[in-house]
Amino acid sequence: MNLTDHEPIALAVIGGTGLYRLATLAGARSVNASTPYGDASGPLRIGTLGGQTVAFLPRHGEGHALPPHKVNYRANLWLLREAGVRRVLAVNAVGGITQRFGPRVLGLPDQLIDYTWGRAASFWDGADGDLLHVDMTDPYTPSLRTAVHAAAREVKIPLVDGGCYGATQGPRLETRAEIERLRRDGCDVVGMTGMPEAGLARELGLDYACLALVANWAAGCGPAGTPAITMEEVTANLEHATARLPELIAAVLKRLAR
Ligand code: HPA
User: What is the Cα–Cα distance from 160 to 140, expressed in whole angstroms?
Assistant: First the structure.
Protein backbone atom coordinates (compact mmCIF):
# COMPACT_ATOMS: atom_id res chain seq x y z
CA MET A 1 0.00 0.00 0.00
CA ASN A 2 1.19 3.46 -0.90
CA LEU A 3 1.91 5.90 1.91
CA THR A 4 -0.86 8.24 0.80
CA ASP A 5 -3.24 5.77 -0.87
CA HIS A 6 -5.97 5.84 1.80
CA GLU A 7 -8.77 7.95 3.21
CA PRO A 8 -7.70 10.92 5.38
CA ILE A 9 -6.44 9.63 8.72
CA ALA A 10 -8.55 10.87 11.62
CA LEU A 11 -6.09 9.80 14.32
CA ALA A 12 -2.79 7.99 14.70
CA VAL A 13 -2.08 5.94 17.81
CA ILE A 14 1.50 5.27 18.85
CA GLY A 15 1.45 2.16 21.01
CA GLY A 16 3.86 1.84 23.92
CA THR A 17 4.86 -1.08 26.12
CA GLY A 18 1.86 -3.41 26.40
CA LEU A 19 0.15 -2.09 23.28
CA TYR A 20 1.64 -3.64 20.14
CA ARG A 21 -1.48 -3.81 18.03
CA LEU A 22 -5.02 -2.45 17.88
CA ALA A 23 -7.23 -5.52 17.60
CA THR A 24 -10.21 -3.36 16.66
CA LEU A 25 -8.51 -1.88 13.60
CA ALA A 26 -10.51 -3.39 10.70
CA GLY A 27 -9.13 -4.17 7.26
CA ALA A 28 -5.71 -2.91 8.27
CA ARG A 29 -2.99 -2.72 5.67
CA SER A 30 0.69 -2.20 6.35
CA VAL A 31 2.64 0.74 5.04
CA ASN A 32 6.35 0.48 5.33
CA ALA A 33 8.51 3.42 4.56
CA SER A 34 12.00 4.53 5.13
CA THR A 35 12.39 8.21 5.80
CA PRO A 36 15.22 10.72 5.41
CA TYR A 37 15.84 9.97 9.11
CA GLY A 38 16.05 6.19 8.74
CA ASP A 39 13.56 3.42 9.37
CA ALA A 40 10.51 3.77 11.58
CA SER A 41 9.89 1.25 14.39
CA GLY A 42 7.88 -0.90 12.02
CA PRO A 43 5.19 -0.75 9.42
CA LEU A 44 2.37 1.69 9.92
CA ARG A 45 -0.96 -0.13 10.09
CA ILE A 46 -3.80 1.80 8.51
CA GLY A 47 -7.37 0.58 8.87
CA THR A 48 -10.79 1.65 10.02
CA LEU A 49 -12.20 1.98 13.48
CA GLY A 50 -15.73 3.18 14.13
CA GLY A 51 -16.03 4.16 10.48
CA GLN A 52 -12.94 6.37 10.51
CA THR A 53 -9.45 5.83 9.20
CA VAL A 54 -6.90 5.23 11.92
CA ALA A 55 -3.15 4.59 11.82
CA PHE A 56 -1.29 2.53 14.39
CA LEU A 57 2.45 2.37 15.01
CA PRO A 58 4.02 0.30 17.80
CA ARG A 59 6.82 2.49 19.17
CA HIS A 60 9.03 -0.41 20.22
CA GLY A 61 8.40 -2.49 17.09
CA GLU A 62 5.94 -5.35 16.84
CA GLY A 63 8.08 -7.70 18.92
CA HIS A 64 9.31 -5.00 21.31
CA ALA A 65 12.78 -5.12 19.78
CA LEU A 66 13.59 -1.44 20.39
CA PRO A 67 14.39 -0.13 23.87
CA PRO A 68 13.39 3.48 24.63
CA HIS A 69 16.82 4.95 23.87
CA LYS A 70 17.02 3.14 20.50
CA VAL A 71 13.63 4.14 19.12
CA ASN A 72 13.99 6.26 15.99
CA TYR A 73 11.53 8.92 17.11
CA ARG A 74 12.27 11.16 14.14
CA ALA A 75 11.56 8.43 11.59
CA ASN A 76 8.33 7.49 13.39
CA LEU A 77 6.95 11.02 13.43
CA TRP A 78 8.13 11.72 9.89
CA LEU A 79 6.43 8.58 8.62
CA LEU A 80 3.17 9.57 10.30
CA ARG A 81 3.31 13.05 8.86
CA GLU A 82 4.11 11.73 5.37
CA ALA A 83 1.10 9.41 5.61
CA GLY A 84 -1.05 12.47 6.20
CA VAL A 85 -1.49 12.16 9.96
CA ARG A 86 -2.42 15.39 11.74
CA ARG A 87 -3.29 14.09 15.22
CA VAL A 88 -1.38 11.66 17.40
CA LEU A 89 -2.49 9.92 20.56
CA ALA A 90 0.66 8.56 22.18
CA VAL A 91 0.25 5.71 24.64
CA ASN A 92 3.11 5.52 27.15
CA ALA A 93 3.73 3.17 30.06
CA VAL A 94 4.88 5.09 33.14
CA GLY A 95 5.76 4.71 36.78
CA GLY A 96 3.58 6.62 39.24
CA ILE A 97 5.23 9.13 41.56
CA THR A 98 2.45 11.12 43.22
CA GLN A 99 -0.56 9.73 45.04
CA ARG A 100 -3.09 10.12 42.21
CA PHE A 101 -1.04 7.95 39.87
CA GLY A 102 -1.08 4.48 41.39
CA PRO A 103 -0.66 1.32 39.30
CA ARG A 104 -3.33 0.79 36.59
CA VAL A 105 -4.36 4.45 36.51
CA LEU A 106 -4.85 6.10 33.11
CA GLY A 107 -3.38 9.58 33.07
CA LEU A 108 -3.64 12.47 30.65
CA PRO A 109 -0.65 14.66 31.54
CA ASP A 110 -0.55 18.33 30.64
CA GLN A 111 3.12 19.04 31.36
CA LEU A 112 6.48 17.53 30.66
CA ILE A 113 10.08 17.70 31.86
CA ASP A 114 12.77 16.20 29.67
CA TYR A 115 15.67 14.39 31.37
CA THR A 116 16.68 12.34 28.34
CA TRP A 117 20.06 12.85 26.68
CA GLY A 118 21.85 11.88 23.51
CA ARG A 119 18.68 11.31 21.48
CA ALA A 120 18.09 12.90 18.09
CA ALA A 121 15.64 15.46 19.41
CA SER A 122 15.02 17.75 16.43
CA PHE A 123 14.46 17.62 12.69
CA TRP A 124 16.66 20.67 12.34
CA ASP A 125 20.34 19.95 12.78
CA GLY A 126 21.66 23.19 11.40
CA ALA A 127 22.62 21.80 8.02
CA ASP A 128 19.23 22.25 6.46
CA GLY A 129 18.48 25.91 6.71
CA ASP A 130 16.05 27.42 9.14
CA LEU A 131 16.46 26.70 12.78
CA LEU A 132 13.11 26.44 14.43
CA HIS A 133 12.52 27.08 18.14
CA VAL A 134 9.04 25.66 18.52
CA ASP A 135 6.85 26.81 21.38
CA MET A 136 6.45 24.07 24.01
CA THR A 137 4.68 26.03 26.74
CA ASP A 138 1.89 23.47 26.58
CA PRO A 139 3.60 20.32 25.28
CA TYR A 140 0.34 18.45 24.71
CA THR A 141 -2.27 19.90 22.36
CA PRO A 142 -5.07 21.27 24.56
CA SER A 143 -7.90 20.55 22.08
CA LEU A 144 -6.83 16.91 21.70
CA ARG A 145 -6.49 16.53 25.48
CA THR A 146 -9.99 17.95 25.85
CA ALA A 147 -11.34 15.44 23.33
CA VAL A 148 -9.72 12.52 25.15
CA HIS A 149 -10.96 13.73 28.50
CA ALA A 150 -14.52 14.20 27.26
CA ALA A 151 -14.49 10.82 25.52
CA ALA A 152 -13.34 9.07 28.69
CA ARG A 153 -16.17 10.67 30.64
CA GLU A 154 -18.67 9.62 28.00
CA VAL A 155 -17.73 5.95 28.21
CA LYS A 156 -17.06 6.16 31.96
CA ILE A 157 -13.42 5.23 31.84
CA PRO A 158 -11.64 6.76 34.84
CA LEU A 159 -8.86 9.10 33.75
CA VAL A 160 -6.65 11.34 35.84
CA ASP A 161 -6.59 14.70 34.09
CA GLY A 162 -3.39 16.73 34.20
CA GLY A 163 -0.01 16.09 35.77
CA CYS A 164 3.59 16.32 34.75
CA TYR A 165 5.42 13.58 32.82
CA GLY A 166 9.14 13.26 33.55
CA ALA A 167 10.97 11.66 30.62
CA THR A 168 14.06 9.70 31.70
CA GLN A 169 16.70 8.02 29.59
CA GLY A 170 16.38 4.40 30.65
CA PRO A 171 16.44 1.61 29.91
CA ARG A 172 17.21 1.01 33.56
CA LEU A 173 14.66 2.12 36.10
CA GLU A 174 15.47 5.08 38.34
CA THR A 175 17.08 5.22 41.74
CA ARG A 176 15.14 6.34 44.81
CA ALA A 177 17.08 9.62 44.77
CA GLU A 178 16.35 10.22 41.11
CA ILE A 179 12.63 9.76 41.69
CA GLU A 180 12.79 12.06 44.75
CA ARG A 181 14.40 14.67 42.52
CA LEU A 182 11.67 14.24 39.91
CA ARG A 183 9.05 14.64 42.64
CA ARG A 184 10.70 17.86 43.85
CA ASP A 185 10.74 19.06 40.26
CA GLY A 186 6.99 18.55 40.08
CA CYS A 187 6.75 15.31 38.12
CA ASP A 188 3.75 13.05 38.73
CA VAL A 189 4.73 10.17 36.48
CA VAL A 190 7.98 8.95 34.95
CA GLY A 191 8.52 7.24 31.63
CA MET A 192 11.27 6.70 29.09
CA THR A 193 9.55 7.48 25.79
CA GLY A 194 7.74 10.80 26.21
CA MET A 195 10.63 12.73 24.70
CA PRO A 196 11.79 13.62 22.16
CA GLU A 197 8.50 12.36 20.69
CA ALA A 198 6.35 15.25 21.92
CA GLY A 199 8.87 17.86 20.76
CA LEU A 200 9.22 16.28 17.34
CA ALA A 201 5.45 16.18 16.92
CA ARG A 202 5.37 19.89 17.71
CA GLU A 203 8.13 20.59 15.19
CA LEU A 204 5.98 18.92 12.54
CA GLY A 205 2.89 20.80 13.63
CA LEU A 206 1.02 17.66 14.67
CA ASP A 207 -1.60 17.66 17.41
CA TYR A 208 -0.24 15.38 20.10
CA ALA A 209 -1.52 14.08 23.44
CA CYS A 210 -0.16 11.47 25.82
CA LEU A 211 -2.17 8.73 27.45
CA ALA A 212 -0.02 7.53 30.33
CA LEU A 213 -0.65 4.02 31.64
CA VAL A 214 0.71 3.53 35.14
CA ALA A 215 2.55 0.21 35.22
CA ASN A 216 4.08 0.43 38.70
CA TRP A 217 4.92 2.75 41.55
CA ALA A 218 8.13 4.54 40.60
CA ALA A 219 11.16 3.59 42.72
CA GLY A 220 10.49 4.19 46.40
CA CYS A 221 6.95 5.55 45.87
CA GLY A 222 4.84 2.53 46.79
CA PRO A 223 3.54 1.81 50.28
CA ALA A 224 6.30 0.94 52.76
CA GLY A 225 7.66 -2.51 52.08
CA THR A 226 6.78 -2.45 48.36
CA PRO A 227 9.22 -4.87 46.76
CA ALA A 228 11.45 -4.03 43.80
CA ILE A 229 9.68 -3.41 40.49
CA THR A 230 9.29 -6.62 38.49
CA MET A 231 8.39 -7.08 34.83
CA GLU A 232 5.57 -9.44 35.91
CA GLU A 233 3.97 -6.64 37.90
CA VAL A 234 4.44 -4.19 35.05
CA THR A 235 2.90 -6.60 32.53
CA ALA A 236 -0.11 -7.42 34.71
CA ASN A 237 -0.85 -3.77 35.42
CA LEU A 238 -0.49 -2.80 31.78
CA GLU A 239 -2.85 -5.58 30.71
CA HIS A 240 -5.39 -4.12 33.06
CA ALA A 241 -4.75 -0.53 31.95
CA THR A 242 -5.03 -1.35 28.24
CA ALA A 243 -8.20 -3.46 28.53
CA ARG A 244 -10.56 -0.60 27.72
CA LEU A 245 -8.31 1.34 25.38
CA PRO A 246 -10.11 0.26 22.18
CA GLU A 247 -13.35 1.58 23.66
CA LEU A 248 -11.67 4.83 24.67
CA ILE A 249 -10.09 5.30 21.25
CA ALA A 250 -13.45 4.69 19.56
CA ALA A 251 -15.00 7.34 21.80
CA VAL A 252 -12.18 9.78 21.04
CA LEU A 253 -12.79 9.27 17.32
CA LYS A 254 -16.48 10.00 17.77
CA ARG A 255 -15.62 13.21 19.61
CA LEU A 256 -13.16 14.29 16.96
CA ALA A 257 -15.73 13.70 14.22
CA ARG A 258 -18.16 16.19 15.77
N1 HPA B 1 10.28 4.47 35.35
C2 HPA B 1 10.48 4.83 34.06
N3 HPA B 1 9.74 4.37 33.06
C4 HPA B 1 8.76 3.51 33.35
C5 HPA B 1 8.51 3.08 34.66
C6 HPA B 1 9.30 3.59 35.72
O7 HPA B 1 9.12 3.27 36.89
N8 HPA B 1 7.45 2.22 34.58
C9 HPA B 1 7.10 2.13 33.28
N10 HPA B 1 7.89 2.91 32.52
Answer: 15
Q: Whose CA is nearest to atom 6 of ligand 1?
A: 95
**Whole-prediction pTM:** 0.96
187 contacts 97 by C-beta, under 8 angstroms: yes
CATH of domain 11-93+102-110+117-165+192-216+230-257: 3.40.50.1580
Distance (Å, whole) CA 226 – CA 215: 14
CA of 157 to the centre of ligand 1 (A): 22
Q: Which tens digit of pLDDT belongs to each residue from 116-146?
A: 999 999 998 777 666 679 999 999 999 999 9
CA-nearest residue for atom 10, ligand 1, is: 94
| Binding site membership of 173 for ligand 1 (Cβ less than 6 Å) | yes
pLDDT of residue 128: 64
Enumerate the domain spans of the chain: 11-93+102-110+117-165+192-216+230-257
